[in-house]
Amino acid sequence: MKQIIxxxxxxxxxxxxxxxxxxxxxxxxxxxxxxxxxxxxxxxxYYLYQENISDLSDERFSSNQELESYLRGFDTPVDIxxxxxxxxxxxxxxxxxxxxxxxxxxxxxxxxxGMEFGLFKDPNKIDSIIGYVSHxxxxxxxxSKDITRGDFFYAIINQDLDTVRLVENNFRELLIxxxxxxxxxxxxxxDGETLIINNKRVDLVKKSYQYPPIFLxxxxxxxxxxxxxxxxxxxxxxxxxxxxxxTILDFKNESVNELIIDLRYTIGSHSYARTIAEIATMxxxxxxxxxxMKETWNLKAQPxxxxxxxxxxxxxxxxxxGNNEIINSLNLSDVYxxxxxxxxxxxSATELLINSLRPYINVHVLGNKTxxxxxxxxxxxxxxxxxxxxxxxxxxxxxxxxxxxxxxKEDETYDTGIIPTIQLCPTxxxxxxxxxxxxxxxxxxxxxxxxxxxxxxxxxxxxxxELEILYNSINSQRITxxxxxxxxxxxxxxx
Length: 495
Fold this sequence. Notes:
Radius of gyration: 26 Å
CATH architecture of the largest domain: Alpha-Beta Complex
Largest sheet: 7 strands, antiparallel
Structural class: alpha+beta
CATH superfamily of the largest domain: 2-enoyl-CoA Hydratase, Chain A, domain 1
């Protein structure tokens, strides 16, 4: 034990000496390169792949003058930032005005008629496109009209009152980028082979729409088992964590003993490790103060944390939300997470939740193999401890690089992806969508069979007519996943 501590102290001492050799006071730094200096020091101290970038090595510069000369070789902060990333790094972000980017996230909203849809090629008509309604947003304009999930449309009436059929080179202009407020759809019936025009028209008006925190929730009585079904389509930010907590309380009050979380339409992204830990507690609750996730930083920062702040590397099951609201828990031993829908492989937040829960309960993943994004990112600012407080006010740049990898209590990670318990169709079958939240929805029906019987031999007819899907409106709304973020006090390495 003494040897381990001694080695840690020697390593920290060496790191400190090396970093201090390139340290300087803010007063002596040329304002022309102060942002470049911040970028280099932030990446040198905390970039997860620091050891793989030669220009970020602690031995790269023997003096402050040599470092400054290097920094002057870059015309802009973007230039040096791009030079310091690995070729495969698509995660790191350089923000040029954090006062805007760090503003509180607003609730999800859009200017929309409230119809989500997909498009596929008409198998019997060259270049012709058929649209189908994937779902209607609750309380939207479309929700009050005679249009529902599973309906088909083939044309629109334009501003000149002409009937324009959907084809491959006009569907974006007619259905996605149209300027008029009203979308006039001409409906049809389709059986997989023949399109039959039914003389029905539906006019949909674009309105300002705020997405509800919870898309759909209900309790399904399965006899001995009672399943809480939650369809969620927003991000996992703090904006909606209170509503999720309320939904769990509703399920608890109805004695739910199974939970199905349907993420087929979720947009993903923008989540914090703390939020995921809170959701993990909602599902369980019987593991207070047990480790839910671990952090592994780069070879430079990790020894410092292990020696000085070992507890900061661990996130434990919390008992309350950030606002001190008590977390409602279901104390479950199983949870079922649906990832399928238009080839959705889950966000980094979803993967973190699944992996964190696996040492404690049975996590049944239904859908596709996930991408494998076990990275945690952090916002770094130009201050002594990289916090926004007391940041250098000569500029408003900030860094958002990956700084760590997540693992669970058993040190298991998921950088190669999570293999589903049961493989489902990569896309929904447009000819058999059913009603969301009901057993007429083929996907939910099969999941309920699995919940009640454990039968994993699901046999969904995915796309019996081999329709070529061209577009789905949910895919275009999915936010670029910039990883799961953490908040943590940092030492002033290199400052």
